[in-house]
Amino acid sequence: MSSLSYFAFKTCLQFKPVLEDPYQNHVMVFENPRGIRKCTIGVEGHGREGPHRITIGYDCLKPPNIEMLVMKALGFPFEHNRASRDIFIDVQYENIEPGNNTIIVQFKFDQQSLISAQAVNMSPDFKLYENIFIEANLQSTDYDGVVVVLYPQEMNVALPTHICSFIERISNLDKHVHKVATVWNCDYVSGGRLILSPTGKISPYHDVKVIRDAAKKGMMRALDAGMKKPLLVVENVVDFPDGQLVCILGALEAFYKPLQIRERQDSKNFIRIGLHTEEKEAEPFERIVRNAIALEKSRIFTRDIAGGDPERMAPAKIVEYIKDSFAEDSNITVKVIDNEHLIAEEYPLLAAVSRAANRVDRHKARVVEIEYTSSNPSRVSETLMLVGKGVTYDTGGADIKISGRMAGMSRDKAGAAAVAGFLKACAILKPPHLKVKGVLCLCRNSVGSDSYVSDELIISRSGKSVRVTNTDAEGRLAMADSVFKLAEIAGKELNPHIYTIATLTGHARACYGSYTATMDNHSAKATNHSGRLQFSGSRVGEGFEVSTVRSEDLAVNAGKCNGDDLVQYDTDAKYRNHQLAAGFLIKVGGLEDKNIKYTHLDIAGAAGMPPEDPTAVPVLSLCHLHKVLL
User: Domain Cytosol aminopeptidase spans what residues (predicted)?
Assistant: First the structure.
């Protein structure tokens, strides 16, 4: 009944569903006993084929919130994307101006369809967005435990009112609660179990990742304790403006199970997840939860691709997975180029990398072009064009990796996975101001009798000759022709910006550890793009370090042999290896003299290596920077 009470609280209406012979008639009564807020209520019974129809006054409730509140009042789980919501509810606005005007809310479903919809929500599939709820009552019997992120006492973060004194007594009793996650018997919360998960000390050098880590550890401790229905307290921390979003994302991350585990067995480790806040205004928190669920769905998609083993996520399997995932997204188109001869003609550098793998059909190179189109093209103000490195396994090729350094190279496709994940976020959240083109350069750097080798001179799509010097530097070759192709068409797009995202160099990892190296060309640098991306990353818990591409980083890629245009990799270079890789992509992509914004992201250290799960970097930061969020 909490959702019905909440609906009544947000409007001046009393909601009384009455089921009279549900397979024949379903009567819904909305009453306005006090006559306040200018509501006009129409009451109608109807047969199974007829719609519900209610008129709500303008001053009662602002239009954007109506669908969500009514769906909640009818007992649906909190999250439902726009496509699924449109199946059940249609909101028709008439004369939307303050005063004597109305909003028409028409329900499209009958009792039987409601029953069917609720049955779908009980599916055992790994779909956490169907089982997430906002919960106002910390003692609700719907949950079997409560998780609280514990902040340093000096930060004065407000704790839930009726357990505040209990937590304070525990903190005074045992200071160790500020170091590790602990479980306490507490009669004041759901299930009688309270988990305190501390952030630890937060200094001026810490960022919002401390909240993410604490929320994740708290949820993992809840699972270890046997909880299946945890309720997370999401506090508002003024020092971290997006702290609530990051807290929820950290908690959801704890529930992730790799795709191959989910396909083999029922690995669902929860039944229900609750989110509690003490906020007086509910709408902003609901928007945060919507964003968090959409982002986590996108990150699951990214992790599945990046973390799949070399066979489960071979190029052919990735194509299949992407097509299935985007099948119902009307604003997404997917084009696959898998003809070996066409790839050799249009993407000659990628074709060279893939040559040894072409003997195995499932390992052959594929170029996947995914495009998101705004539902209102007149509102588009920016065109993003992303190229992702999708090397499904990197043996090193003829310059083979030795001494165990090949292990983990199935993660060399994390860049392509991130591009797909960002497109997934756009498909769910539907930003009206963006047009997005994503290119996934999928291949496998195998070794065999037809391997490409050093000393080969290959003519790129741009017409420039490239001398191969190290077959283990295949990533830049895999992406180069796609970068040039996008640069060719960028001039016809509105405010274009090209990205390359790749686990490209060990040098980036050596320089910055688990942080992403971001590098702008001259046009992007003029807008301080990498600086702004770094700021967005700091807001959502993804770290970036800004590197500068200098003239030397372009010059070092000039051909060394007589007549060569470019060298794939200068084997004599001892410094600036991740910058010179960006310089190579700028030159071979034809971006050196064009005023087209270009940013290269080297996620080699940030993508996550086994045994850790993939991180899905930089999906969150791109969504934050480019205002994909609701």
Answer: 470-477
The model's pLDDT over 401-453, given as tens digits with 9 standing for 90+, comes to 999 999 999 999 999 999 999 999 999 999 999 999 999 999 999 999 999 99
Q: What are phi and psi of 80, to 5 degrees?
A: -150, 130
Question: Range of 495's domain?
Answer: 300-625
Structure tokens given for 443? 């291949």
User: Which is nearest to 27 in space by CA: 3, 44, 14?
Assistant: 44
Q: Is 288 within a domain? A: no
Q: What residues contact 123, with CB distance under 8 A and at least 6 apart?
A: 130
- Give the pair of three-digit tokens for residue 176: 């160790």
Give the tens place of pLDDT for each residue, 88-98: 444 444 433 44
> Which residues are CB-neighbours of 296 under 8 A, at least 6 positions away?
128, 129, 249, 252, 253
**157 & 251 share domain:** yes
Quote the percentage of the chain above a pLDDT of 90.
74
Q: Are residues 337 and 264 in the same domain?
A: no
Q: Domain count of the chain?
A: 3
Burial class (CB in 10 A: 0-12, 13-18, 19+), 309: middle
In SS3 terms, 370-384 reads as EEECCCCHHHCCEEE
Record the tokens describing residue 323, joined without a space. 């097509």
- Please give the structure tokens belonging to residue 162: 């009726």
My answer on whether 618 and 526 are in the same domain is yes
Residues 116, 140, single domain; the answer is no
Query: Which residues form the catalytic set?
Result: 401, 476
